[in-house]
Amino acid sequence: MDDRISNDEADPVPEFYIPATTSLAELEPRTLKHGDSFAVFDHYGDVLRSDRSPQGLFHRDTRYLSRLEVLIDGKRPLLLSSTVDDENVLMSVDLTNPDRFDGRQIDLSRDSIHLLRSKFLWMGHSYERFAFRNFDTKAHEMTVEIRFAADFADLFEARGQRRAKRGRSHQPVVGAGRVVLAYDGLDNETRVTTVRFDPEPEFLTGTAARFRIALAPGQRNVVLMAVTCAAQPAHAFSGERYFFRLRQARRAVRVAKRRTASVTTANALLNEALERAQADLAMLMTDTDEGPYPYAGIPWFSTMFGRDAIITAHMMLWADPTVARGVLMALAARQATAEDPLRDAEPGKILHETRGGEMANLREVPFGLYYGGVDSTPLFVMLAGAYFERTLDLPTIRALWPHIEAAVTWIDAYGDRDGDGFVEYGRRTEEGLANQGWKDSHDSIFHADSTLAQAPIALCEVQGYVYAAKRAAARLARAMDMGPRADALDDQAAELAFAFNQAFWCDDIGTYALALDGQKRPCRVRSSNAGHTLFSGIADPHKAAQVVATLMSGDSFSGWGIRTIPQGESRYNPMSYHNGSIWPHDNGLIALGLARYGFKEPVLRLFGGLFDASLYMELRRLPELFCGFSRRPGKGPTLYPVACAPQAWASATLFALLQASLGIAFDPAGGEIRFDNPRLPLFLDAVQLSGVSLGPACADVSFCRHGAQVAVSVLKRTGNLRIITAI
């Protein structure tokens, strides 16, 4: 999502680069999120590394807690286990006391005292419960110290950027059972962390709370802690309040999950991966004024991204169309209305990213409301068309139509910079992103000889998105009785498809060029980008088979998935961010494209590879990306050091793979749910979809594989609905 540096020493360090001084895979962080807050802890539930680290409690792109450490008699407890529950609500850490010497002998043996730390986030608060229990036959006393601090670092500072000047930190204000930490930002905003304890500590300073815990044999004792990203918490703090808020948090997740069709399979491990994916999506979903919106990923991208949310919503559309509506309405509300070069904004353009921290407010980074993405705008129109095909929700489309027209106008007036019929990008200022497609590393668009392409750059997949956007806008115009407008849009789409297949096709490499550079020279590089032309439908059917063969060749398909750039290309590096790695969402979109053109066997291979990869991932969670090394017997995939997990579009990938395999489609006008040539991979004998909705009607449908054939059975049906299977 941001520029990453390559290993080429001649390349300058890109702005907004995320330094990889420590691997997230090495840290194995524990992650929680609710709304505009997220937290990253170590296995102990502590925050001990804050410099260039994602650890801490963040709210609206500012770190409100940069240190949290629990000590028993001055020593760190012994770790027993650490996990986040299946709903991603509660983090639980089991700890025990270390051996304690009185100078001559052990007076408290290890494993005598059990400490259970339980924590969750809710409405800008981090709630934590420390439950002590004495399992020894003797009474014990111990000193428990909780250390804390707040550096109020901007997220971009935590990522590694240095600032010439910062605001002013206040001296801590210590009261009865609470400490208030505050910071006056250079943006004239005061940010406040309030730390509260129940019961009141025996000793409390601006950096630590100390408790004397006395436990008879079998006795329990509890300490509660709340960290609030505000000056005045709205309520008192107690054990009752802790459990009340925990119930609220669990209830909210379950309500969100009930909107989504559920999937159960005959493969227990796939069920675990699907349950985690659904829980991750529920956690990343953030309620906006316009509806639910999936934030992109944790830790670095826990905010609104246009491209990520649109693609996530598209992959989830069959299971939960309310996400698409929320995304469309939220992006429409933030659509650019004027030119602003620093933000790469132009009238009609759809948001790339928004940030709420001090550096964004001061424009030290351009991402307060940033529009430097070339693909969000056509993808927005594509999603609007797909949402209407899924729901026939004409009132929403009528409300969106001015924004759809503005987006189409941007495509024609601003997107096509040189009037050649293709949409190009080039940043308006040096502060913006150099590359503005989904592969936005500074070195991700290049020629066969490794020379970087110069702007304005026309990406192959973006032309496909524009083609699909024009087709979608035509269908929507026709639904609103605007026949002439629909015909004109269809004509434009047809002209673009013809020109694209002429200009981008490279017979010598068996696929479409990665891009055209500023001089209209094709970047004759094989890439996963070409797979998106199948997703959009712009690929000539006669060329599609060659594209598929190239994508599924040994150079491109690693055994785990399709690489962003295949082996043999000049900048191929399986450890790079965009030049040889494997992105689950990229493979998910390609799978939908393969199914569109009738290539089901490659879909099943992709499904199998990514499922197998998930078996090696912590919590069965597909990350943002992983390295593109070839699959080897007995060895799992190689992790990427700073990949976000969870990541919304990675979590949605399994739902896209299911849709591509089962051929899930909808005809709301005819009251039909269709399954076109349903297939299942060899690792999967049976699947059940429950609560697949079409308006007020819904159905439960099962699929059972017999060899290469799949039998479809309707288990339950409510409302006026037909289930159609097409072979």
Provide a short characterization of the protein structure:
This protein is α+β, with helices and mostly antiparallel strands.
Can you describe this structure?
With 727 residues, the protein is of the alpha+beta class. 29% of the residues lie in helices and 25% in strands. The chain has 17 helices and 34 strands. Residues 3-13 have low confidence and may be disordered. Residues 32-221 form the Putative glycogen debranching enzyme N-terminal domain. This is Glycogen debranching N-terminal domain-containing protein. Residues 312-619 form the Mannosylglycerate hydrolase MGH1-like glycoside hydrolase domain.
In percent, how much strand structure appears in the residues? 15-25%
Gyration radius over CA: 27 Å
Please state the structural category.
Answer: alpha+beta
How would a textbook summarize the main sheet? 9 strands, antiparallel
Intertermini distance: 40 Å
Shape call: globular
Name the descriptors.
single chain; 727 residues; alpha+beta; 17 helices
Layout of strands and helices, then pairs:
Elements lengths: L23 H4 L2 E5 L2 E5 L14 E4 L2 E4 L1 E6 L5 E7 L6 E6 L3 E2 L4 E3 L4 E10 L2 E10 L5 E10 L5 H4 L9 E2 L3 E3 L2 E7 L5 E9 L4 E2 L3 E8 L4 E9 L10 H20 L3 E4 L2 H17 E4 L2 E4 L11 H11 L4 H13 L19 E2 L3 H4 L7 E2 L5 H16 L2 H22 L42 E2 H20 L3 H21 L1 E2 L4 E2 L2 E2 L15 H5 L4 H11 L32 H13 L3 H15 L33 H4 L1 H10 L1 E4 L4 E5 L9 E9 L2 E10 L2 E10 L3 E5 L1
Parallel strand pairs: 30-34
Antiparallel strand pairs: 1-2, 2-3, 3-4, 5-12, 6-7, 7-10, 8-9, 10-11, 11-19, 12-18, 13-15, 14-15, 15-16, 16-19, 17-18, 20-31, 21-22, 23-24, 25-28, 26-27, 29-30, 31-32, 32-33
Helix pairs in contact: 3-4, 5-6, 5-8, 6-8, 6-9, 8-9, 8-10, 9-10, 10-11, 14-15, 14-17, 15-17
